[in-house]
Design brief:
Bound molecules: ligand C2E, magnesium ion
Number of strands: 9
Strand order of the largest sheet: 1-2-4-5-6-7-8-9
Shape: globular
Largest sheet: 8 strands, mixed, barrel
Strand content: 15-25%
Helix content: 40-55%
Radius of gyration: 21 Å
Number of helices: 12
Order of helices and strands: HEEEHHEHHEHHEHEHHEHEH
């Protein structure tokens, strides 16, 4: 009887493996078609300055509007897009859409000088030799100033032993685009690259904010002090309650994003937020 069960289990395992492979191949095909049919849609999560909660921008977070299936979150497709190189074309669409959104907000006089949109740039996209010229062209075509953009990169990118990295980062900075390190502290954090590269912002990963009531607190404090010593600013991600926001404020964190304020919003909802803000009179501080 045990033998039989064993055999069953083996068959189930085999079927699972096959199913996984089929799923992966299907997903890859679907991703190709998603790029061809422009099925990626940006959502925008508001970022607020501390301690006064002024809106200072958004992070563009991609979703895949898959026919028949609805909104697919990036956790389900970014890794495969990265492995297959499809991320390069996807990132181009994310950048294009971000600039379209900024242009849209400019047309309605909602895009004040202090607002910046952060775009996530994966390793493959960062190494794309066309990244800079594509950025330049898109910004120009849409009449968008590079000052409205921040690029979020990961620690992993900075660890590669390539001399092109400093060159690319310097070129990005020269345009007035800001550079942010995403999920700071979760990778191979090295103090060496922080002083070597022209980084503006450290994003404190949600996992540390989550653990602020226990051992995450000293990590968050250390990252903020580090940033202050290096003349960088900090954005905490994934703050879900007001206690976390209070603690982040007390520690001198510069800005925060998270469900405590807002999830990522559709273009329409983000536009509405900007409109409410401008009708409240908070918007006209910089123009
Ligand atoms: P990330 O860049 O660290 O983005 C933050 C993630 O945390 C987002 O998930 C956001 O919705 C989520 N988040 C923010 N505040 C809260 C909160 O209070 N509670 C909880 N539970 N979650 C919160 P999302 O949109 O699912 O994105 C996941 C990851 O996918 C991103 O992590 C980023 O690494 C990647 N990603 C998203 N869009 C893009 C993109 O356009 N290009 C690339 N290369 N990667 C992207
Ligand atoms: Mg990010
Ligand atoms: Mg992040
Ligand atoms: Mg994160």
């Amino acid at each position: 009887q045990a033998k039989e069960r064993g055999r069953d289990r083996y068959e189930v395992f085999g079927a699972d493996m096959l199913q996984m492979t089929v799923k992966r191949v299907n997903l890859e095909n679907d991703l190709h078609s998603a790029i061809d049919h422009h099925q990626f849609v940006n959502y925008y999560q508001p970022i607020y300055a501390l301690p006064e909660y002024q809106l200072i921008g958004f992070e563009a977070l991609v979703r895949w509007v898959k026919p028949e299936e609805g909104l697919i979150m990036p956790g389900e497709f970014i890794d495969l897009a990265e492995e297959t190189g499809l991320i390069v074309a996807m990132t181009q669409q994310v950048i294009q859409q971000t600039c379209e959104a900024i242009q849209h907000w400019q047309n309605y006089d909602l895009m004040t000088d202090d607002l910046r949109i952060a775009i996530n740039i994966s390793g493959q996209s960062f190494r794309d030799p066309d990244l800079l010229s594509m950025l330049d062209q898109t910004l120009q075509k849409m009449f968008v100033s590079p000052h409205h953009l921040t690029l979020e990169i990961t620690e992993r990118i900075l660890l590669e032993q390539s001399s092109n990295i400093l060159e690319t980062l310097t070129q990005i900075k020269a345009r007035g685009i800001r550079l942010s390190i995403d999920d700071f502290g979760t990778g191979y954090s090295s103090l060496k690259y922080l002083s070597k590269f022209p980084i503006d912002i450290l994003k404190i990963d949600k996992s540390f904010v989550d653990e602020m009531s226990s051992n995450g607190h000293s990590i968050v404090r250390t990252i903020i002090e580090l940033a202050q010593n290096l003349n960088m600013s900090t954005v905490a991600e994934g703050a879900e309650d007001s206690w976390q926001v209070q603690e982040l404020t007390a520690l001198g964190c510069d800005a925060v994003q998270g469900y405590a304020f807002s999830p990522a919003l559709s273009l329409a909802a983000a536009t509405e937020l900007l409109m409410t803000r401008s009708s409240n009179g908070i918007a006209r501080t910089s123009s």
